[in-house]
Amino acid sequence: MRTLSVSALLFAGSLAVTSAALAGNQTEPNLDKGARVFQERCSLCHGDVGMGEGVLPLALKNYPKTNLMEPRYGVDKKSLQEIVIWGGSKKAMHDYSPPWGDELTWTEIESVVMFIQYLHTETEQAVAMLRKLESSKSISLKLGSNIYQGRCAICHGKTGEGNGRMAKIIKNPPPFNLTLSRAPDEYLHQIISKGGEKMSRSYRMPPWGDELSEPELQSVIQYIKTLRRY
């Protein structure tokens, strides 16, 4: 699907322009797509069910509160669109909330906004949707890519070079350049599952064993191997 950049949105006039006008032949926004985007892109900080129980807030000291049930900015459609597109730094919040305007299609933006609102109004049903998605996953490079971009790229970078957004904050040591890794699958499984500290590496590398299923772990391992430079 065609990705709309922030500049394209500005050129269109305003955030109030309808998704149909911007999306062209894209599918209409829907809750299922919103749940998938939330799980892949938002759960790292906001948690699997949006209650602020994400891995980063639990692992890093002084991390901002990320409970979507206690929003700092608002849950009306326009406010959510702005924070998803522009990120926290543009909305006088914090730098940890990244801008997704250049990475998500307009349909995905509209869908995840719709889902976050649904999470507020119909929490039990929204959580059930997320749980169902979790249980239906199987090993694939596409799944690995989605997990990597949603959970790993923030530190290791989109292409694994250790230059993600958090690299500006995490020092001594900085995020590892995964393109140089030659670690075997078993080692990757352990460090992803147990975290860096348990493997005598950086304590800032969070443990994902309780967050990712075995198919998800295997998928992200296979994807990480595609980033290597031989």
UniProtKB/TrEMBL annotation:
For this UniProt entry, the molecular function terms from Gene Ontology, in alphabetical order, are: electron transfer activity; heme binding; metal ion binding
Instruction: Enumerate the InterPro entries for this protein.
Output: Cyt_c-like_dom, Cyt_c-like_dom_sf, Cytochrome_c-type_DH
Domain Cytochrome c: start-end pairs? 29-120, 139-228
Q: State the UniProt keywords alphabetically.
A: Heme, Iron, Metal-binding, Signal
| SUPFAM superfamilies linked | Cytochrome c
Pfam families for the chain: Cytochrome_CBB3
Signal peptide range in chain numbering:
1-23
Which named protein is this?
Cytochrome C oxidase, cbb3-type, subunit III
**Species this chain originates from:** endosymbiont of Ridgeia piscesae
Lineage of source species: Bacteria, Pseudomonadati, Pseudomonadota, Gammaproteobacteria, sulfur-oxidizing symbionts
